[in-house]
Amino acid sequence: MTSARNNILSKLKSQVKDADYSKLPAEQGFNYPQQSFSEQLEQFITHLENNHAQIIKLTRAEIGKVITQELAARNITSLLYGDNSQYTQDIEQSDSSITLNKYSFDFAQHKERLFNDTPAGVTGSRCAIAQTGSIVLWPTPDEPRTLSLVPPVHFVIVDAKTLYPSFGDLIEQQQWADKLPTNAVLVSGPSKTADIQQTLAYGAHGPKELIVLLLNS
Amino acid sequence: MSVDQVNPNDESKYAASARAFRDNVSRDLANDELRSNFRGAMDYLVDKRKTALSDSDELETLREQCKLIKQRCLVKLPHLLEALEEKLTANGIKVHWAETITEANEIIAEIIESKNGKTVVKGKSMVSEETALNDHLESRDIECLESDMGEYIVQLAKEHPSHIIMPAIHQNKKQVADLFAKNIEGFEHTTDVDALIQQGRNVLRDKFCNADVGVSGVNFAVAETGTLCLVENEGNGRMCTTVPDLHIAITGIEKVVEHLSDVPPLLSLLTRSATGQAISTYFNMISHPRQQDEKDGPGEVHLVLLDNGRSQMYSDDELRQTLQCIRCGACMNHCPVYTRIGGHAYGTVYPGPIGKIVSPHMLGLEATTNLPTASSLCGACGEVCPVKIPIPKLLLRLRQESVKPKGAPQVMKGQGSGRKTSEAFIWSVWSMIHKQPLFYRTSMWFATRLRFLMPKKLGAWTVARSAPKLAPKTLHERIKEREQAAKGK
Predict the structure, then answer these.
(1) CA proximity to B327, closest of B304, B311, B360, B350
(2) Distance of CA B137 to the CA centre of its chain
(3) Would you call A152 an interface residue with chain B, using a CB distance cutoff of 8 Å?
(4) Which of A149, A196, A198 comes nearest B44 by C-beta?
(5) A64 within domain boundaries
């Protein structure tokens, strides 16, 4: 369809031949008041809780124990987790009553299992955003995209040290424009919908529960 | 090629339903259940937005910023599209261009057929509604299932979305329960919304797992990085773009932004204007197909860029502002007309104020000539628009375009098709009278003296109103009398 491409582009170009970009008006963003770290953390937690996520503050050494407790409370006995990722060893400290399954397989070969027989998954996170209560997932071959998407319960480990005030600050400071991964996702709660009579219901298609394990030392 | 020479096969099915606007309005105004569904939903959304945008300094700064971002991106549009294509191609995403809806559907069907795809799951995409993609794929024996809960409901009901953000807003939970009962095997009857969603979820999870293809829309396409951004709450967008091995995204050419840093302010106003959320549950950024060593994600990703009337909007400085739209739906939520007649009465894919200014370019003014007149020009849509599109002004402009005389410079498809000889004659007499003081005074003198001749019934005007009464004397006369009386004192 090169003719469609050329037609569209030439129509558009003929309209802005003389455009002078240096004359474009200056764009001004809003200056949000500076917040202390504890205010940011509170904002982050409040947003997530309002969006129905569960927040558990803990230390790194407690990850295995807390996961065990939370799974037991839900009568879940298995957990899918990433291979060689930052918290793999901490996750492996969970109780032996939990069957730990490593995501060391190709998704296409194990689709059915992931959809029908994987009640919970755990991932780490790259960073977090205070202003909107968002967690940044940056999937890798070790922690694939579907690990945080398909299992109905998603545990996500967030280090409070990685909190940024806003999405804009984050993009700028981490220079995202230089290199984005195959897929990056901001997650701000469990899956939800208000498509039936504006009534909120959780667990539309993605995880029904988002359990945030917040490391704050 | 002139804009009037369009292949008749390209006519959207929505042209016919838009022509029936007046009948649609009568039908839907008489439906009390529908009206109560819309009223409830609009009040809810207006309230949500108000709470989320309570700081007016912040709101006005962001609106101005977002307007300027979109205007910059539009001035640079052809170059940004080329840059986007180059970057996406380098990232491994294939780019296709379509001038018409038929071309877009053809491209998508061919991609799917080339991979022997038989089943498609679709994330929410208004552009694919614009092309009526589902109908086209079904005609080629490709099953196409909507996966956004609202879209799924609408598809089961064999309808189209009545709102661009909440497609099934016209139905209440009882109606949805009845619909599920008819269509979902083993449905356990309930009007509990959680239970309804769970049953929908179960059907759709199975489809996600087995679909060959995922089709999605795009909220922002970032030229700088070659990234497709999707805003959603349900996770169906992530499913459609992650689980099947083939992902096809379709979007309008106006969705491109220059920098990644343009996204945060636009995203912030988009979700807050739309549903009052600080951010959607998921903001999904896709920059590559599955890379080596990665264990999941589609092996192939395609983007279809659709024109369908957008380059026509682009060709006029005033009308170009239509392309600033980020599809938040706030204008319809705040529109007194939309709230009363609902989304289906418009007969178009995009209803409400934004629909009234985009549809004439997509379907032509001949099919949509009534739409720009269906406004009281109260200005609410323009006041809430996050990118400051002067919607009321554009409605007036489209009214002018629809009555333009033959031979006027070509601005848009179907211009002048609302022009009536009798109406044009009346206005030319009116104009002549008003230009000449002698004519004006004489005719006004006669009009006031012969006011008893004014009929009680004035066609459509007096269906719901009483006929206007002329004053016994003109204003000029009365002022003159008053001045003389004052002098006499």
Answers:
(1) B350
(2) 23
(3) no
(4) A198
(5) yes
Helix or strand holding residue A120 (H, E): strand A120-123
DSSP of B379-406: -HHHHH-TT---HHHHHHHHHHHHTPPT
| Domain presence at residue A26 | no
Residue A105, phi then psi, degrees to nearest 5? -120, 165
With H, G, I as helix, E, B as strand and everything else as coil, classify residue B58. helix
CB A79 within 8 A of CB A98: yes
What pLDDT score does B9 carry?
Answer: 56
What is the token pair recorded at A141? Answer: 């071959």
Q: Are B56 and B191 in contact (CB under 8 A)?
A: no
Residues in chain B: 489
Residue A123, both tokens: 């991932």
- Which residues of B fall within a CB distance of 8 Å from A199? 173, 193
Asked if A168's CB is within 8 angstroms of B225's CB, the reply is no
For residue A111, being part of any structural domain is answered with yes
* Coil/strand/helix, residue A37: helix
- CATH number for A77: 3.40.50.10420
Looking at 2.60.120.620, 2.30.30.140, 3.40.50.10420, 1.10.10.10, the CATH number of the domain B8-171+212-311 comes to 3.40.50.10420
Residues making up chain A, counted from first to last:
217
Residues paired with B145 in a beta bridge? B121
**Per-residue pLDDT tens listing for chain A (217 residues):** 579 999 999 999 999 999 999 999 999 999 999 999 999 999 999 999 999 999 999 999 999 999 999 999 999 999 999 999 999 999 999 999 999 999 999 999 999 999 999 999 999 999 999 999 999 999 999 999 999 999 999 999 999 999 999 999 999 999 999 989 999 999 999 999 999 999 999 999 999 999 999 998 7
Query: Would you call B61 helix, strand, or coil by DSSP?
Result: helix
Return the closest-CA partner of residue B194 out of A203, A148, A27. Answer: A203
Question: Which SS3 state, helix, strand or coil, does residue B129 take?
Answer: helix
A107 touches chain B (CB under 8 A): yes
The answer to ipTM > 0.95 is yes
Residue B161 CA to its chain's centroid (Å): 11
Indicate the number of domains in chain A: 1
Nearest-10 crossing angle of helices B56-75, B77-91: 80
Q: What is the pLDDT of residue A210?
A: 98
Residues from chain B that touch A15, judged by Cβ atoms under 8 A, are 314-315
Tokens of B57: 């300094």
Rounded distance, CA B176 to CA A197, Å?
9
Copy the structure tokens of residue A104: 């060391």
The answer to whether the CB of B338 falls within 8 A of the CB of B309 is no
CB neighbour burial string for A121-160, b if at least 16 within 10 angstroms, e if fewer: bbbbbbbbbbbbbbbbbbbbbbbbbbbbbbbbbbbbbbbb
Write the DSSP symbol of residue A198.
Answer: T
The pair of three-digit structure tokens given for residue B226, joined into one six-digit string: 């070659």
Strands (E), chain A: 54-58, 78-81, 99-102, 120-123, 127-129, 134-137, 153-159, 163-164, 183-187, 192-193, 201-202, 209-215
Eight-state DSSP code of residue A26: P
Between the alpha carbon of residue B36 and those of residues B155, B158, B199, the distances in Å are 22, 21, 26
Contact in structure between B72 and A27 (CB atoms under 8 Å): yes
CA pair distance B99, B3, nearest whole angstrom: 12
Cβ separation B314–A11 shorter than 8 A = yes
Cα(first)–Cα(last) distance of chain B, in Å?
Answer: 73
The angle at the Cα of A92, spanning A86 to A96, to the nearest 5 degrees, equals 170
**The pair of three-digit structure tokens given for residue B183, joined into one six-digit string:** 């269509």
Residues of B in contact with A206 (CB under 8 A): 234-235, 238-239, 281-282
Q: How far is Cα of residue A39 from the mean position of the Cα atoms in its chain? A: 21
Domain-by-domain residue ranges, chain B? 8-171+212-311, 421-488
Domain that holds residue A165: 36-189+203-215
